[in-house]
Write a structure and sequence with these properties.
Radius of gyration of chain A: 20 Å
Oligomer: homodimer
Structural class of chain A: alpha/beta
Order of helices and strands of chain A: HEHHEHEHHEEEEHEHEEH
Number of strands of chain A: 10
Chain lengths: 211, 211
DNA sequence: CTTTGCTTGTGAAATCAATCACAAACGAAC
DNA sequence: GTTCGTTTGTGATTGATTTCACAAGCAAAG
């Protein structure tokens, strides 16, 4: 089955299904129903079925879905059947936190380049990598065949960094800088803005008791 | 004007408008049109107008919106007309990165408590705070009148931590642990899952060239 | 005071996403 | 091999969000 257009939120739910499937597999279950998946994933059974049906028909009526096979299929669908080579720009505290976080490696993402423009940081040894000068970014991105970029710099540098990444051939960027990046539409861009998350909490707390 | 129900995405756009308004104010502009706001915020003029119209009528036809007044109003709407007291649970690398990030203070969020259960971390001095034992969380949350919690712990501890936060009276939680938290519906919960963000990039790269 | 050029505010329309509801399919039991 | 209980896959429906399109309103110019 060939997906016409999958909504961003449906893709994110696929990631959740994967986590839940991991848990079921660990628990030794061999089949799950859409109801089981929905229960642990926090959505409705109908939504689970619709999401999965976009990519094919993986279940057996009356039985449910075979856990390990579905896990493999979802892994494949999400593009996690291979490893991804990631470059991290910004060797500050947040950059370090992401670099040393194990969860990425576990899901198939290898940070194979770290960049900064601060002379104090350049040359630092991070695990088995060395922090590179942003000047060398183009060269290193090609040499290490980096496919995705994570931007963890102050807002002001984010746009030029994004431009450099894209010029070097990177097609997907995860941006933590609190600024809106302008990129060509073919470039995949996701933003994580921590200030906005907190502000959304503030809004909710402020308006919860009847305006 | 009394908002009936504002969508989560509309609230997030309000945060963006605020950033754009800051930029315009800094640039000395006194009025902006919905088109100006849309241009820099990356949405359509109609959406800007509809979003703002949920909360009242702030503009003048033919002229646009008065920058500093609109900025004040949006600040007020988002609940940023006051400071918020935040507790941070998890004194690891990511916790430290968030703690030392200045952007929060700038937007009105003060981290006034840091907690961990690792004896090596407890007692560490962070800025003008000391990392507290999670055992003391209930006491400190009350003493410091903490209103929001940020969870930056491994997945396994996140649910019990959330329960403790809520038991202590916290009504809004920002969760960075890669696990789904179950909380009462009155509790406001936002999740930031970095693995999901990367997986969404992987999906996009995998499917961009016609399946 | 009237005209002109803009821009808001907002119902109506269109698009997009989630839910419903049910026929079809399967295994197990007998 | 028929019945029963269960669960999928999906067209139809409902609901939410975004976009459209235009009347109403304002300032400036003459």
């Amino acid at each position: 089955m060939r997906p016409t257009k999958i909504s961003e939120s449906a893709v994110r739910r696929l990631s959740l299904y994967l986590r839940v499937l991991d848990a079921f597999e660990l628990a030794g279950k061999t089949t799950v129903s859409s109801g089981d998946l929905a229960e642990l994933g926090g959505m409705t059974p109908a939504q689970v079925r619709k999401d999965l049906s976009h990519f094919g028909s993986f279940g057996k009526r009356g039985l449910g879905y075979p856990v390990s096979e579905l896990r493999e299929r979802v892994t494949e669908i999400l593009g996690l059947g291979r490893r991804w080579r990631v470059g991290l720009v910004g060797a500050g505290k947040l950059g370090a936190a992401l670099f040393f976080y194990d969860g990425f490696r576990g899901q198939g993402f290898d940070v194979v380049g770290v960049f900064d423009n601060d002379p104090d940081k350049i040359g630092q040894r991070w695990g088995r990598l060395v922090v590179e000068d942003i000047e060398s970014m183009d060269r290193v991105i090609h040499a290490a065949r980096i496919e995705m970029g994570i931007i963890v710099t102050p807002a002001a540098s984010a746009q030029p960094i994004a431009d450099l990444l894209i010029a070097a051939g990177v097609e997907a960027i995860l941006n933590f800088a609190p600024t809106r990046l302008r990129v060509r539409p073919e470039i995949t861009l996701r933003n994580v803005n921590l200030e906005i998350e907190l502000e959304s909490l503030a809004f909710a707390l402020t308006h919860e008791n009847g305006v």
